[in-house]
Amino acid sequence: MDLRIFTVNAKCKGVIFSIKDDSSDRKEFTPLEILQEIEKRRDMVMIDVREPVEVQICHLENARHIPMGDIPSKMEELPKDKDLVVFCHMGIRSKQVMNYLRKNGFSRVYNLKGGIDRWSVEVDPKVQRYR
To answer: Which residues form a coiled coil (predicted)?
Structure first.
């Protein structure tokens, strides 16, 4: 994979949880699905791959911030034995990070479909939306 995409965008944070799903190849979950998993158990890690300026606007509690561009150098700090949910503003950068991590041995990594923006709409309207 071409690592140059990681130098263009993102900074990241994480939260902790575990996703159970019958479909082993499922890669994306909606904010409501993630919230249900968080409410059941708190053994997942949420990773925010947005840039620092974006995190200053809004963030998710307990999410670990690791900018997208830092993922290659911070991969070794991520647990392979926990479910990782990666998110960004709209879910595009985080999907790239998810694919990168999966190609590098992380089988339990998922994308938050629609990113923090969709989280704000569907789960927590107190999370400020931005463009």
So the answer is: none
